[in-house]
Amino acid sequence: MRSAVLHRLLLALVGLVLLAVGGAVLAVGLGAPPPSWWIHTGPHDVLLSRSERTHWRTAGWWWPAVIAAPALVLLLALWWLTTALRRRRLTEVVVDTGDGASALLRARALESALAEDAVRQEGVAHAEILLHGSRTAPVARVWLQLEPYVDPAKALHAFTTQTLARARESAGLAALPAHVHLRAVGHRAERVL
Q1: pTM recorded for the entire structure
Q2: Of 104, 127, 128, 111, which Cα lies nearest the Cα of 176?
Q3: Which range of residues forms the domain containing residue 66?
Q4: Does 97 lie in the same domain as 153?
Q5: For residue range 8-40, what is the model confidence (pLDDT) as tens digits?
């Protein structure tokens, strides 16, 4: 969840920088006085003068660098776009019906069943489950909020041997790996009389 917020903040920052630079270029091009940080003096000034354009032309590294830099920026932008559009949450899980066929189980149904079963466990105050991975080999991300008196090792053992095992068996999965994050419920200190 923290990476999604970081991703959105970084995207917003890049968008604001591009909007500011693009707006400044448009404003100067339409005749507005350039801002104080602007690198050129007026609307008829060129981005690169003839001497600036031809200065490095004879260097052997110049044209490969001119081609590689925008290509690298384009590849990074495409990678960023694909990671932003990639679905992080699984939508359905393939369930073996036992007769050679298979059925589709909604991943949210399995997530909510896992969460409800986990909350019934001794000492678990709240549970959040997220399935990701592939339809045939899902992986569970689990956040368990434990009561202050619960031993985390016992709670984890009970979750993996009971709750997770029941979900794996009922969905007919060969394996259901899980990444479990444990945290304690916030509570006030007890008064000693």
Answers
A1: 0.55
A2: 111
A3: 57-86
A4: yes
A5: 788 889 889 988 888 877 887 787 877 777 777
110 and 137, same domain (yes or no):
yes
Six token digits for residue 130? 């997220």
Long-range contacts of 83-87 (CB under 8 A, 24+ apart): 83/7, 84/7, 84/11
- CA-CA distance, 68 to 56, in Å (whole number)? 15
62 and 127 housed in the same domain = no
Between the two ends of the chain, the Cα-to-Cα distance in Å is 42
